[in-house]
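During the reporting period the student researcher (J.K.) took over the structure-prediction task from the postdoctoral fellow and processed the backlog of single-chain submissions. One of the processed entries is reproduced below for the supervisory committee.
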Amino acid sequence: MSATLHRYRDVLRHASDRLNLPQPARSRVLLEIAGDLEDLHAHYLAEGLDDAAALRRLRTEYALSDDALADLAALHGGPLRRLLDGLSAQTRTRWERGLLLGLLAFAALAAGQLLLTRDFFALRSPFLWPVLALALVAFALALRHGWRILTRGTRELRLLRRELNALPALAVAQLALGGLGAWLELGRGAWAGRVEPSQVGPRMADAFQAGVALAIVAQVCALLAGLAWFILERRVRAAEMHEALLLQGILAEDENTDEGRHP
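J.K. obtained the following C-alpha cells:
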C-alpha cells in the first residue's frame, strides 16, 4: 500500500487540502480514495494503456466534487466514530478488553444455564433452526475472513471492511428472529389454552420455556457473531491506522518539499 500512496500522493494531497475532518477520520477518507484510485488505475491498464499513460489519464480525469467529499466526510465522521476517535488508544484498548471479557462471561453463563435446563431439547421452538442457520452462516463468514487475514494479510482493507459488516447484520437478524419467535411461541401457547381451557396453565408454561430458551440461544449466537466481528474489526482497524501513519508521512514529505522549493 505504501507504493500506492506514493504513486497517487498529488491527488491525495489535493483531496486532503479540501477535507474538513480531524484525524484519524481524514486519513480513513484518504485511504478510501487511494483504493478508488488503484481500482481506476487497474481499469486503465486493462484498457491497454501503459503505466505512465494510465497515471497521466488518472491525474487528468479523476476529480472529486465538493459534494462527494462532503458525503465521504459525513460517512466517516459520524457521532460514534467521533466518540471512538476522541478516546486515546490506551483508554480504548482497556475499554475494548473489558467489554470483550464481559460479553464472553455473559455468553458462557447464558449458554451454561440453557444447557442445564432439563426440558430444553424437549421444548425447543421451531424458530430455533433458522436462528442456528444464521449462526452457522456467521461462523462460516468469521472463519473465512479470519483465514483471509492470516493468509493474505490486510491488503484488501476496503473489501474486508465491507464484508465484515455482514457479521453485525447477522447478529441483529438473530436477535430479531429470536424475539419474534419468542413472541409467537407465547401467542401459540395462549391460543392452545383457549382451545383447551383446562390445559391453559401447562400450555403457557411450555410456551414460556420454549420462548425463553429461543431468546437465550438467539442472544448467545448474536453475541458470538458480535465478538467475531469485534476481533476481526480490531485487526483491520490496526492495519488502517498503520496505513494512515504512512499516508501522513507521505503528505508531510510533500509539504516539506514544497516549503523547500518556496522559502
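The committee noted the following: The mean pLDDT is 73.
J.K. will present the remaining backlog at the next meeting.
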